[in-house]
# Entry
Amino acid sequence: GMQEESGWPEHSRRRRMASPGAGVVYGQLQDAATSRSSAGRGMAGMQEGLLAAKTWAPERNLDAFCTKVYNYYVEKGFWCIVLSRITNLVNLAFTILFSTFLLLFVDWSAVVRCNEHSCEHLLRQDVLENTTFGEGVVIMYFTIFSLYWVWSFIGFLFTLRDSHEMYEFYTERLNIRDDELPMLKWHQVLDKLVGIQDHVKICIIKNLDSLDITNRIMRKDNYMISMVNAGIFKISALCLDEHSGVFGKTLEWNIRALILDSMFDDNFSVKRFLDPLAHEQLSENLQLKNGMVRLRHKLMVMGVINFLFMPFILVFMTIYFFLKHFEELHSKTSDLGPREWTCYSRWHLREYNELPHFFEKRLRATHKPSQRYVNQFPMNISTIIARSIAYVSGAIVGVLLILSLTGSKSILNVYIGHRSLIWYLAVFTAVLALSRAMIPDHIEQYNPVEAMEEVIEHTHYCPPSWKGRYHETRVRKEFSRLYKPTVLVFLGELLCVVTTPFILFCYLPSRVDRIMECVKEVTVCLEGVGDVCGPAAFDLEHFAKIPPSKLKGLGAASPAAVAKAGETKVRKYAGPHQVTVDSGRRGERKREHEEYLRPFKSHQGKLEKSFVSFLCNHPYYETDTQGAALLTTLTANAAAASSAGGGGGRPPRAPALVASHIIAPSGPGDQKESTGGGGRGGGGGSAAAVGPPAEAKGV
# Structure
């Protein structure tokens, strides 16, 4: 490879050699060099080569490149991205200016005293003269968020540049126009990206497949999913927990900035994170201790910074929420407005390598059945009271609306208790909307089991304590902790702004050892990708509840085949519990290692469900022997569950994952195809190729 670089530009060689561990997009210049070598064929060939050399510069950060390719697809083209960013900047500027106007220029004491006799000087004229402490705080609020707007505008310029590069890449390399993006699925775009590597080299080490590219896009989010799965951020303080006021967007942003964004070096390795001093002569425990001390210090410093900015963030979030959700809360008729999943429950439900648009699509499908399940348990007392309040307030609103339609000025000139009738119209309209929201929709049939089964089919989540008890109020309360009204979720976000400084300063430093151990134990190194989260690499042998080597019967894989499939998944940072010393204690040490890894293994089959979901979302991906063994076993279980339902009545519902994802083989030939043949493993290793959903006989 280095010998072939002699004809390349000097700056390209320097940039490639500067980061040998990271994949580099260099095939563009290779194409340009090929075009230049054939320049004698005519001026057109030379111009084409020069254009390619100018357009396709090397990429040093393949993670950023793959993320830009994905974001361009999700946001549906260049002009959609530009207009989206411009409108976001306009909305942010409006929120800052409007909130500053309301807080600084409106004299709210005069507004409250305003009546039919005196209603003057509602706006302050001498704001910048004799500034009080409160006005100074508002001015500081305006300054801070104005700087944030400037920073967002600078980010928009970089986004504009990246979007233009992606426009050229999609148009000239992938042959996909912007108007075609809404009709394409992501796996079709990804298949083209994988296919062009025969002539446009993306990674200098190997050709990346769908899993490699997805692991690059989801590298940081997969670690977050693993930490949530291990219960590291399951926090309870006073009367609060991770679903109400502790884990919110503010804490998530801090975790991402302090841990996830600083976890990897230029070679996509976590060694610097585990050992900031990078002293090779130190023992493994001392290296881990260095990382713990550094992370504790960063968390405590960020806790102080969050405490200083807390009041400004609270004001901004309150005003922004009011402006964004007021119409929605007024128009919806569900319980206290529309419902949504809490921030922590979203991370808890998300699966490994599940890209954001797949995850959002899955959550959108849960809203109707989730709301239907919640409504299966009507609160009779509150419903009776709400109906009475709705009747009274509706009658008053109706009379006031009739007065306004008659053209009479009485609604403006008649005062009751120093308030005009139009004020009462606004108040009783709000009371009517709130009372109607507390009245559940009419339920024709009481069937919470069917509603919950439909929810589970989309969420892939069902704790063991829920099974067979969907009709109980306890399960409804536990489910409602995950799926709350939007108003309560927002109040939890406001409370999270207050609690985040204390969580960062007092609580998370005591969890640093678990964070570092989680990173250390779940990290595997993939060739051509770098360090990634082991469950996201679908390392089923180490992180699945039942390793493929222990599967019995149909789908069982030989230990040699499993070992061969796992050769590319190297656990460089695994703890000393993984090493066996003498043969006499081998079984005891193995049990100790399994117990040690238990907190970091996937719970409730998350790894297996993530694996099957990935195959459904990427139908052309070819799995290895470990995955083939798991798929065959799941298929056999689904077929057994289906055959057990015969005999008259309605067949028992198969587990949600198997029922919605696994297609049973139609015959022995299909079973043979699912466990044999070549694939990504190559050289005799078994692989299962998953075809399009309509042709999923490979699964």
Q: What stands out?
A: The first helix runs from residue 10 to 18. The CA atoms of residues 268 and 530 lie 5 Å apart. The two ends are 38 Å apart (CA to CA). The first strand starts at residue 236 and ends at 237.
